[in-house]
Amino acid sequence: MSRVLIIESSARQQDSVSRQLTQQFIGQWQAAHPADPITVRDLATDPVPHLDSHLLGGWMKPAEQRTDIEKASLERSNQLTDELLAADVLVLAAPMYNFAIPSTLKAWLDHVLRAGLTFKYTDTGPQGLLVGKRAYVLTARGGLYAGGTNDHQEPYLRQVLAFIGIHDVTFIHAEGLNMGGDFQEKGLNQAKARLAQVA
Ligand SMILES: Cc1cc2nc3c(=O)[nH]c(=O)nc-3n(C[C@H](O)[C@H](O)[C@H](O)COP(=O)(O)O)c2cc1C
């Protein structure tokens, strides 16, 4: 049995392409592994706060010195991290916003990159602690970026995931969605076909 964690980050619900891809992923996964639990965390409807002095202050302090607000902030971060630690398969839905990932997804990453929990510092440098996990990243983009130097999503997410120990990462890009003509249909169909093959 594998536990699947899906992170949604499109601000759109109805017309979101990345959500169409996660729905396809869920359908495929359930058909192949009906007993596997799937958790969906929607950062649009349930956003996580940006890092602030309460959270960072609480992280650094011994437990008995934390204020109530620091404890509550840390508790939220712990919950997000526990969810990730429990997952065997991570699916990140990542629309492209202004050449990067949505700030909601960045905020989530800021909560789960936790020294001592998801990575640790060693004499030879940082070491990821999430061993044996697999990730799928489902992007949706208005233009065409895959494989080019303007793609700041894939290299960034590969680095972040590798940092916490997730090296088995498959990217599926739905591209050209805002380019008119038949680009949108082609981009979506290609992404769906690839997803059908790999997941
Ligand atoms: C605020 C905003 C910023 C965007 N920035 C870019 C961008 O920099 N490059 C691009 O190719 N598409 C950009 N787009 C288009 C989206 O990537 C595209 O609409 C994609 O389908 C969004 O994902 P979704 O369908 O899951 O919501 C942007 C869209 C929005 C709403």
UniProtKB/TrEMBL annotation:
Coiled coil: none
Binding annotation for FMN: S10, S16, V17, S18, M96, Y97, N98, F99
Enzyme Commission number, as recorded: 1.6.5.-, 1.7.1.17
Gene3D superfamilies hit by this protein: 3.40.50.360
Top-level taxon of the source organism: Bacteria
The protein's required cofactors: FMN
SUPFAM superfamilies: Flavoproteins (SSF52218)
InterPro entries reported in the protein's UniProt record: Flavodoxin_fold, Flavoprotein-like_sf, FMN-dep_NADH:Q_OxRdtase_AzoR1, NADH:quinone_OxRdtase_FMN_depd
Keywords: Flavoprotein, FMN, NAD, Oxidoreductase
Cofactor note: Binds 1 FMN per subunit.
Pfam families recorded: Flavodoxin_2
Domain Flavodoxin-like fold stretches: 3-197
UniProt-listed PANTHER family: FMN-DEPENDENT NADH-AZOREDUCTASE 1, FMN-DEPENDENT NADH:QUINONE OXIDOREDUCTASE
Assembly, per entry: Homodimer.
Protein family per UniProt: Belongs to the azoreductase type 1 family.
This protein's name: FMN dependent NADH:quinone oxidoreductase
Protein source organism: Pseudomonas batumici
Lineage of origin: Bacteria, Pseudomonadati, Pseudomonadota, Gammaproteobacteria, Pseudomonadales
